[in-house]
Amino acid sequence: MKTLIIRYEGKDSLIPAAEIIKNGGIVAFPTETVYGLGGNALDPSAASKIYAAKGRPSDNPLIVHLHKYENAGVYAHTTPLFFEIADAFMPGPITVILKKRSFIPDSVTGGLDTVGLRVPSNHIARELIELSGVPIAAPSANISGKPSPTSFDHVYHDLNGKVDAIIDGGSCDFGVESTIVKLEDKTIQLLRPGAVTVEMLSLFGDGLYVDPAVTEKFDGTPLAPGMKYRHYAPSTPLTVLDGSDKEVYSYLSDREDVGVICFDEDLPHINNAYVISCGSVSDTLTQAKMLFECLRKMDGRTDLKHIYARMPSKIGIGLAVFNRLIKAAGFSVVTLK
Ligand code: TXA
Ligand code: MG
């Protein structure tokens, strides 16, 4: 398939992409979190094309992207807590799972009776949804199991030739996928951490429950089907190192042919490895933005036997960085204490 590459040059430049979506095709587009691969959420054949292009299991539901949260009631059974959360965080990097209306195709929701709704804040995503005139179902625009794409180059690498169009809209602001919450009466269940943090959400509802699949290897059924799959994984084995500066430097000192994802402050202290920093130790926003880029860079190196990454802080968006990193590592963590 020939993929149309669209460089964003104002809203009109998106008209061909919107036409593709209206006609049942699929388009990769930027959002403030990661790039998405979108199709008409009301067209089951568009969903099938998305699953095929990504190589994704079809029991893993797609998030439905809307232009306005005020329209959420058309697609799902909303609650007062939904509107409290939507007023606070939408448009923005959060997905809310609600009971779906029956006309949302099963192929979009993986057969579940719920649907994830998200209103992105990225203006290109918003203009595309508006011009298409339909809700857009979109997973992250990566090959299933690989790190999510945070730049046009990542999407081009994974999906050129497999999708109808890719919109080049620069790099993504947050770099980790949206926070996912499921609302049960007045309780908030956190299914995936993101830029809307636990600290922010704890001001809403009657309690916040963090799904065990967020922080540990979980043998049960996670609330978000996607959390059961090994994700974001580079081809070279990855291990997260949990220890002090001294412990980590000493652990790495006699290793050969390794890559290390570390913090800016570590750079002068690690000399025998291919080292990439994902930001300053306390700058969790930059770490989130850089994480998938770092994993992809490591993946591009065929000379590395093993990749190590330093354990990030779990505060704020740091919890999202931690969650993606331990999943990328297949939960391989070495505690040096
Ligand atoms: O930031 C994001 O959310 C990006 C951009 C493109 O919007 N999208 C994204 O989609 O990350 P995806 O498909 O890669 O991840 C969606 C996650 C999966 O783990 C899926 O299982 C879960 O959301 N999910 C979707 N609908 C669900 C539902 N109804 N119930 C439970 N989990 C759901
Ligand atoms: Mg994904």
Topology overview:
Layout: E1 4-7, H1 15-22, E2 27-29, E3 36-40, H2 44-54, E4 63-65, H3 72-75, H4 80-89, E5 94-99, H5 106-109, E6 114-118, H6 123-132, E7 136-138, H7 152-159, E8 165-168, E9 179-184, E10 187-192, H8 198-201, E11 207-210, E12 238-242, H9 245-252, E13 258-262, E14 274-277, H10 284-299, E15 306-310, H11 318-328, E16 333-335
Parallel strand pairs: 1-8, 2-8, 4-6, 5-9, 10-11, 12-15, 12-16, 13-14, 13-15
Antiparallel strand pairs: 2-3, 3-7, 4-7, 5-6, 9-10
Residues 139-140, 148 line the site of magnesium ion.
Architecture overview:
The chain folds into two domains: 211 residues, DHBP synthase (Alpha-Beta Complex), CATH 3.90.870.10; 98 residues, 3-Layer(aba) Sandwich (Rossmann fold). It contains eleven helices and 16 strands. The chain is an alpha/beta fold. The protein binds threonylcarbamoyladenylate (TXA) and magnesium ion. Threonylcarbamoyladenylate binds next to β5 and β6.
N-end to C-end Cα span: 52 Å
Order of helices and strands: EHEEHEHHEHEHEHEEEHEEHEEHEHE
Number of contiguous helices: 11
**Backbone CA Rg:** 20 Å
Bound molecules: threonylcarbamoyladenylate, magnesium ion
Largest beta-sheet details: 11 strands, mixed
Strand content: 15-25%
**Briefly, what CATH class of the largest domain?**
Alpha Beta
**Can you say what the CATH homologous superfamily of the largest domain is?**
DHBP synthase
Described by its quaternary structure, the protein is: single chain
**Shape verdict:** globular
Number of domains: 2
Low-pLDDT residue intervals, each spanning 5 or more residues: none
Annotation, overall tally of beta strands: 16
Provide the spatial order of strands within the biggest beta sheet: 1-8-2-3-7-4-6-5-9-10-11
CATH topology of the largest domain: DHBP synthase
